[in-house]
Amino acid sequence: MNVVLMGPPGVGKGTQAAALKAFLGVPHVSTGDILRASMNEGSPLGKKVKEYVESGRLVPDELMGDLIAERLARHDAARGFVLDGFPRTLEQVAILDGVLERLGRSLDRVLILTAPEAEIVHRLSGRRSCPKCGSVFHLESRPPKAAGICDNCGSALVQRKDDTEEVIRERLRVYASQTVPVAGAYRTKGLLAEVDGLGEVAEIGARLKAGLGRTQPA
Questions:
Q1: Tens digits of per-residue pLDDT, 34-53?
Q2: Whole-number Cα distances in Å, 214 to 19, 26, 100, 196
Q3: C-alpha distances in angstroms, 118 versus 10, 43, 50, 122?
Q4: List 21, 88, 105, 187, catalytic entry
Q5: Cα-Cα-Cα-Cα dihedral of 7, 12, 16, 18, to 10°?
Q6: pLDDT for position 215
Q7: Catalytic-residue membership of 48
Q8: Please, what are the domains in the chain?
């Protein structure tokens, strides 16, 4: 199956994408991973990406489309994919349509995880990160053994700037203004399944599978 997974920051896309990858037997294609891999490989596309990233500019939609086309053309994606992080705008919907058309493929389903804004703010604002080893904790769901101290390396934990309430609400505002219209476009095409992102990981995973119309692994 060819699947797009959407949802606001903090809704748990990464966790569920990994589960869908195993369930469907297809790769999880994350735009963040694509960008990092392309720069590390030093390919012609990767060099272009590096120029944008190192200068602090956004990677253009067209270039992202080329990177995604290259990734989806690889052998491991022949049976399908779970695409995460693209498209985020209506312009990117058109680009993805063009990429898939060139590859002779089409989307089977678009899954969007939903959760109330208050819950997202609560989840993200409670995160604390270790600046030294990168470990992540949560004040309620995964607290460190000693308050404010990393379990793994003993460094002082910090709250990242993008985990403050003000920044979280701005990220959600941007998500609503840009990505909600994308969901509307896929709803019109009959591809969208909205999935409640609240509850235990396994419960949410079961809802996603129902949204796919499949209950058995590939």
A1: 888 888 888 888 898 888 88
A2: 14, 14, 23, 17
A3: 11, 42, 36, 6
A4: 88
A5: 110
A6: 64
A7: no
A8: 2-116+173-212 (3.40.50.300)
Q: Is 95 helix (H, G, I), strand (E, B) or coil?
A: helix
Task: Give yes or no: 127 in active site.
Answer: yes
Look up 13 and say whether it is catalytic. yes
Q: What is the pLDDT of residue 218?
A: 63
d(CA 166, CA 170): 6
Those residues of the chain that have pLDDT short of 50 are none
Vertex 178 angle, CA 10 and 173, to 5° = 55
Preceding omega of 60 cis (within 30 degrees of 0): no
Determine the 3-state secondary structure of 189 from DSSP: coil
* Nearest to 33, CA basis, from 74, 78, 90, 89: 74
Q: What is the pLDDT of residue 179?
A: 86
Q: Beta strands of the chain (E only): which ranges?
A: 2-6, 28-30, 81-84, 109-114, 127-129, 136-138, 192-196
Please give the structure tokens belonging to residue 84. 């995460």
Which residue is catalytic, options 48, 169, 171, 187? 171
* 111 close to 208: Cβ distance less than 8 angstroms: yes
CA distance 127 to 91: 33
Q: Which pair of structure tokens corresponds to residue 92? A: 């990117």
